[in-house]
Amino acid sequence: MITIGLPKGRNLGPARAALAAAGLNLDGLDSSRLRQRFPDQNVLGTPVEVLLLKDWDLPLYVEHGIVDCAIVGSDVLEETQPDVFRPLQLKDGRSRLSLIAETPELPKRSGQLRAATRYPTWAARLLAARNLHVEVIHLASSIELGPLLDLTDVAVDIVQTGGTLRAHDLHEVEVLAAVAPTFVVNRASFHAHRRRLSGLLGALEETETGDD
Amino acid sequence: MKISAGLPTGVSAALFDSARRRRRLEARLSALLEERGFAEVLLPILDYFEPYRPLLTGPRLEQLYRFVDRDGQLLVLRGDFTPMLARLLAPHLDELELPLRLYYRGDVVRHQPLRPGRMREYSQVGAELLGGDEAEADEKMLTLFFDLLLAARGGRARRAESGQAPGQQGATKEHTGPYSTEEQHSWTGCMDARMQRDVRHGLPEARGEAPAPGDGEEQTLRVVLGVAGALDEALLAAAGEREASDLALRIASRDRTAARRAGLADVVERGYPTDLSVLGVTAEAVSGLLGLRDRLSSAYRDAGVEVEVDLAEFAAAALDPRIGVGNGPRGYYDGLMFAAYAPGTALALGVGGRYDKVFRSLSGDCSAVGFSLGLDLLLELGLAEARS
């Protein structure tokens, strides 16, 4: 049995599409059920079980070995830094982590800038690498409200289509990093299911991934 | 005054049955080591910090618990047996009769982020072979590594009687019986969550769930072999000095896209390149490793041990100073490296390798190869197998 963790939310669609293109059809997937088996689907002869979990929780489930592998956003991986293998990123569902402000340029401040983000560790790392010494404020959601309500000077958040920025008259000052749904594998599971996972990864690589 | 029974983060106590189980496992492994001519060493729990500066790389050095004692000395708690043993023996190499076979058992402590199955205090049994012909020593120690792993599994899966591997003088006899409920509820810290759930709530059948069908592949103990620095030349050729470190980490993470762009797709897919010449000077060592894999595979296949050459596993163990990944988390290996995995355990059951450079950095000239096994993980593996 190979147990695959799939993310609820924005990455579920690209994840299912990628697996389907690789020959793993999860048509009957019921998003209201936690655990589902697909007796008619297999990875090189091994039955498949799917667990639907929150994106932020998935790395921990993979690291613990509750699921053998999963598709999870690279933003979550960069923030949580789990000890898992990351064999490939999917082409569909990509976005970017950007520095966002009310002006097209970074606001000028005599003191330290403040940034709102849901990725305090990753954002601090990326900003420090650009010699931007910023006080990072962790928000759980609606990150764009940080600069809009003067809690912070800027925001660091995922930009997919730019629709939210336009709606709030915000500007994408700089793209800090690319973000993509990423196939991750538990270390022990990788060795235990090496042949089968290599088959699935090879199929995924041929169909859904590609150069930027 | 109310006294709490709590313990600091990352440590746990073994009480009653779990203590007995651990001692039984230690005794079983020690008996096999003694039978193979290894002598036990007892090492102190405290040491000076200074000798470890040249022996350990950044992350491992940072993980040492260090403090200033009342005499003003900067001391460390034992974080690794191997460099401690090397630093004690290095000044006396001229007086020692080589080859020297030594083993140890005990705890090490490392301050590191808590991860699944990763405590801050570990129980280990390990063995070191100093001196002797290097290739022969590597094979002997790998054979011992395999036999100890099989012995730890209670003799349930022994290696084949035919095709005896070098150094093998007898299989272990002791068989662990079924575990009590108390035992099953002990030492769950290092077990992966799927195993913990089964221990606490019973096997899937008892929970009214269909059992997961086994397919054979995931039931096997897997040992992966590599060579420290094997990919250095290929990494530098593919990515240059500036990007080689990043590429090493990506390949260690089995990033297929990065590997394909670097012309090293084979390394992440099958473990080593089809054309070994891309490895440059390390091609010969890897070729020798493939031969060693074949010999060990044929000797241990029937015992349920799969042996693979997987250079990606050790891609971060770079030796070239231009690749700044700091030789990976166990920075002192400079030749053969190996690690054992079993399904259901979150971490490697044991790791080892050749570390001649440790003695060189201590102004000694002695070849050395060794390994350690994590007793906590082996106990959890025993629990899982007893249930199945």
How would you describe what is shown here?
The complex is a heterodimer of chains A (212) and B (388). In chain A, the strands form two sheets. Chain A has a six-stranded mixed beta sheet with strand order 2-3-1-4-11-5, with helices on both faces. A five-stranded mixed beta sheet of chain A has the order 8-7-9-6-10. The relative contact order of chain A is 0.21. With 212 residues, chain A is of the alpha/beta class. The longest helix of chain A has 14 residues, at 194-207. The two termini of chain A are 33 Å apart. Helix content of chain A is 30%, strand content 34%. Chain A is built from eight helices and eleven strands. Chain B is 35% helix and 16% strand. In chain B, β9 and β10 form a beta hairpin. The model of chain B is unreliable at 156-215 (pLDDT under 50). Chains A and B meet through β3, α2, β5, α7 and α8 of A and α6 and α8 of B.
What keywords describe this structure?
heterodimer; A: 212 residues; alpha/beta; 6-stranded mixed sheet; 5-stranded mixed sheet; B: 388 residues; alpha+beta; 8-stranded mixed sheet; 12 helices
